[in-house]
Design brief:
The chain has ten helices and no strands. Helix 1 packs across helix 2, helix 2 packs antiparallel against helix 6 and helix 9 packs across helix 10. The chain is an all-alpha fold.
């Protein structure tokens, strides 16, 4: 059984019925923006302890955190509808209302709440030979253009593989990077399964390695 089926589906199923798990997904997604994922246990512990005053909710991340806390129930209902109707596009559009969430992290949010989507972060964009700004939205983009960008984004990742492929390959890629480094994380996150388990922070777990 793949990491995706062990971890992502478990998280997504819980997020659609447990509002605290759903909020944790939001916090984890926001915390992960431009941060190495292996430091998420430290950052999530601080967010759980300090809420919006966490030192890791810097910049627009705090506004995103506040939005998710305030609108979690509505967003969770949107997740349930998207899951039941297989409507990823509309769900991503809804998630884009959240401050500091672009299409990449909105798709990551979707991946962890409806088990479809893909996070084409800098690691995956490099693997695809794309610029790290390939899916950034210019300010003032019209709604029709946003819809088109969402469809294009979903087409790009689906052309390479399904959501499970992207989850599993990303975890393996990050683990491979850690093996190439000589630092304190090398022994703990030297395989894809260990990296995947980090996402279980959304369930309130502190993953063992």
């Amino acid at each position: 059984m793949s990491y995706f089926h062990i971890d992502c589906i478990d998280i997504a199923n819980a997020a659609r019925v447990d509002i605290d798990v759903f909020k944790n997904v939001g916090s984890l997604v926001l915390a992960s923006i431009r941060q190495p994922f292996i430091v998420m246990p430290l950052q999530m512990a601080d967010i759980w302890a300090n809420g919006r005053e966490s030192r890791f909710l810097f910049g627009h991340k705090r506004a995103g955190y506040d939005f998710i806390q305030q609108h979690a129930k509505r967003l969770q209902q949107a997740a349930v509808r998207a899951y039941e109707c297989d409507d990823l596009d509309s769900y991503i559009l809804t998630l884009l209302e959240c401050p500091n969430l672009g299409i990449v992290k909105a798709s990551f949010f979707a991946q962890m709440t409806i088990a479809t989507g893909a996070c084409l972060d800098m690691h995956n964009l490099q693997r695809l030979g794309l610029s790290d700004t390939a899916f950034r939205f210019p300010k003032g983009l019209k709604l029709d253009s946003v819809h088109k960008r969402i469809r294009t984004y979903n087409t790009v990742w689906r052309n390479e593989g399904d959501s499970a492929y992207w989850w599993n390959s990303w975890c393996d890629h990050v683990a491979g990077q850690q093996l190439a480094k000589r630092d304190q994380w090398k022994a703990d996150f030297n395989n894809g399964a260990a990296v995947s388990r980090l996402h279980r922070l959304a369930l309130g777990e502190t993953p063992s390695v």
